[in-house]
């Protein structure tokens, strides 16, 4: 082999080592973001989950409110709250419109609700005013909830409207000054 060819091979080997070292260092020194993984225990049968849930209902998402929340170390994720028009209730719901915290999206098990989609929701919380659900519940799109609907049977369809009742026509308010 000629000297010129040997020199060229040495240069290629040196370049290969340099490229590998630059790549390795860039991976090592690159900014990183924490990765969160959602881990759930398999939910039980619909009637079992009905017993442990605060509220179980079906409804259509009419609004989604998104906000950034801190997940530590200066990182933020999206947290969602979904508002539902309730169509059927099996437990813990007395109003026609209800809001459920869907949790933090990403690897934090938040449920990815979509507007105008219908769901069966298994939610937990103190009462119907502070409900939370996640991927770790039986919450699912209604079109995939056949087993739940079959096992739970008929729910309650007559729910209270979330409006202030109108006053009878004979009652009128007038402005008056007290003095």
UniProtKB/TrEMBL annotation:
<dbReference type="InterPro" id="IPR008993">
    <property type="entry name" value="TIMP-like_OB-fold"/>
</dbReference>
<protein>
    <submittedName>
        <fullName>Uncharacterized protein</fullName>
    </submittedName>
</protein>
